[in-house]
Each structure stands twice: as C-alpha cells, then as structure tokens.
Amino acid sequence: MIFPFPLFLPFGLLLLALLAYLFRRMEQIVSGVAGIVTGALALWLLGDAPTEGMVSLLGKLVQVDMQAEVVRFDLTFHLTPTALPILGLGLLLTATVLLLNVSTNQGRSFPPFALVLMCGYSLLLLLTDAPLNPLLLTPTILVVLTALGVYILQAGRLGGTLGPLRSLLPPLIAFPLFILASWHIDSLSINPQDSLAGGAAARLLALGLLLLLAPVPLHSAGPDLAEKAPSLVFAFLLLLYQLTGLSLLLRMTTAFPFIVENSALSLWLTGTGLLTAVWGGVAAAGASHPGRLWGYALLHDWGLILLMLAAPGNNGVALVIFLFGLRMLSTLASAVGLANLHAVAGSLNPLRLRGIGRSIPWSTSAYVLGGLGLAGFPLSAGFTGHWAALQTVAQTDWRVAAIVLVASGGIVVGFVRQIRILYDPRSLLTHSSESLPNTLVALVAILFVSGAALSPQAFTGFVSWVMMAFSG
What we know:
The protein has helices at residues 5-22, 27-46, 83-104, 110-126, 134-152, 162-166, 169-190, 195-212, 221-228, 231-255, 258-261, 265-285, 290-309, 313-345, 350-353, 361-373, 383-396, 398-422, 436-454, 460-471, and strands at 2-4, 54-57, 62-65, 70-72, 75-77, 127-129. By secondary structure, it is mainly α.
C-alpha cells in the first residue's frame, strides 16, 4: 500500500489516538505502546528519512511517498526540509512524554489527546499552500490547538480554569494582526513601491510574532499552570507551543525579510526578553511552591532565548536551537521529579512536601537538577548554553548580561530554599518510599541532564542540521 507522507503521518497519529482512547483503561500499556511507535517515527525522521522518493516500512507492506503533495479544500500539504526537524522534535517530545506517563500517570485522557494534538501540529507544519499564506494562518490554527490543550490540562487533576484560559490569550490577540498584515502584503504585491504598506505589514507581523512568544506581561498562564496542572502535561504543551513559535519566527523572518528591516523587532525582543528573564528570577526568589518556582525558572530561561533571537547573524540562531534543546532536557527532568513528588505526597503543598526528599531522593534530585539547569547553574544541563548566551549578549552590552546573570541568582535562591524544605531533617511527616519504576525513570532523567552538562558537543550535529534546513 502506498501512502503520501502528508496523509501517512497525521492519519497514523489519529489512528493511534483512536486505539489509545478505546483501550484507555489499560493506561500504562497504551501509553507505552503509543510512546514506542511515536518514538520510532521520530527517530526515523531525525535519522535517515529522505524528503524525496519512496520509502518502505514494515518490510514492503507499507510504502510512503515522501515527495507527494496532498490537496484538500484548497489546502496543500507537503513535507519540506524546513519542517522535517521540527516535526521530528515534536514527535520525539510526544514519545518521551508518553513513555514517562507509564510511571507517572497523568490521566487516562492524556495519551489520546496528546496524539491528537501532535496530529494538529503536524498538519500545521506540513501546510505549504492555502488561499492565505500558510505562515500567516499559523496563529489562527494555534488558537484551535491551544483550545484543545485546555482540555488536556485538566487531565487527571481537576483545577481552576483561569490559567488554561489565559494560555489562549497570545494566539487570540496575535491572529487579527496577522490577518491585517496579509492585507498590506497583498497591497505590496500589487505595488512593490508602496513603502507605507510594507512598513505597516512589518510592524503588524513583528508585534504579532512577539505576542505569540508570550513574554512578560503575557506570561501569567505559565507559572499558574506549573503550580496547578499535571507537570508532564504542562511541560508537553508548553514545549510544543514554544517550538512551533520559534520555528514560525525563523521561517517568517526568512520569507519576509522586511519584518526585520522595517520594524523594531530586534529591539522589542531585547527589551521583552530582558524583562522576562529578570521577572522570572525575581519572582522565583520569593516562590515557595515547587511548581510555581519551576514555572518562574522556565520563564527566566525563555527570556534568555528571546534575547538570543535578537542577536545578529547565525550565531544567535544556533544558540537559540542549542538553548531550546537544553531547555527540553531540563524541563522534562524537572517535570518527572515534580510528578513523582505529587504522586507520593498527594499534593505539591510545601507543608506536605517537608522532608520528602529523604524518602524519594532520586525524584527530588531530578526536579532540582532540571530546575537549576533552567537557570544555567554550573554542572547542570543548561550551564554551557547559558554561559555562551551571556557571552554573546555581553559583546553588545555587558550590563544586560550582568542583569540576566544576577536574575538567574534568584532561581538558585528559590531552589536552595526548596531544597531546605524537601530535605528538612526536623520534619515528622512520613512518606512512602520511592517505587522502582519511578526510581529508574528519575535516574535516566538525571543521566540525560548530567550527560548534556558534561558533553554539550553532542548537540553540534543537530544544531547544524536545523540551521541548514532553515537556511535552505
């Protein structure tokens, strides 16, 4: 049987999601099988998968046409070299979270909804032609995908809806700006000498991109969800959304170079990135809830990535890719530790967690090491990337680098306070000991973040590949 790739991947994920839903009562088995299948697809795309020609899978039972275009309802779907690494990373993230869900149990509805969401993101990345430029349609599609994520955030743990609903704000505010910009771009195609239309389109698109990236003050959903939502679910949705946002910005500035030339996008990224990094560090210094502390650490790290987006030349793009790879490792490690802490204590209330580190030391260590990696603490996964980014920033203005470095100290202060709570020797609370599966998962997470700290050069090949894909 021959399948075009734009049909094979999305409908394969939908079929897997349907099976996961039908057998959802066998949650651990379903999540493990879905994770293995999705992981195999991710490794195939990130490995030797060609973008052209016919590929045989399962012997010769299934053949996939990698070059085929699929046209439905005036929409054209096609695999491009630019979309390939983003698709692979998204699938790898989905597979990792599904495999981690086997031991952490984030809710029966999570595996099928996660697969459906990844199917939506894959269609977004494969969309190459539409009545409106597909890049300009992205915020509209992100509204739908973020709305679906609101349901996943309630998986396994009912909580307040204000945080999930606030996560809808960035794409909701951004999509009318992209629609308005498309009108000016159409005017520009008719009259290329219309400088007013070019300037208006550049400013609208720059502001829309900035809103999609959700810096301070559009950040409020993040720390709130980190505190109340299941940690692995939140990590999955956040990383998938931010991966798409970063790829959109890189693709749009390549497709529409006038955005950078005719707007203050670099200045906006610098200002909001600095504000985001500083606020993340300051707020973390006063945070006592482990989830909220983690959320502010994520915010600080995101601010540094925004600063790197404003850096000139390919060095800034390479650092953005490197930093995001380290961010994924640190985020998933801390999410696993936090999920295990919640499973044992029944709550992430600091009063319930006092002294729990003595009962589940490996999960506690995964949470702390992952969180410190988001601050670029020495010997953590994020140290090399943060140090290189600060050096790049210092070449332009050493004061900005110094401010970010001081702000990262706030993350460290917050985690030092958290360590004192988690390992409090005076606590009289008793907790069950760490189960063997959770211990093994936490150990694997610690090994990955430690390996990234000791061998950051392992990311070199992937960073070069992604840069070649975007430049091509």
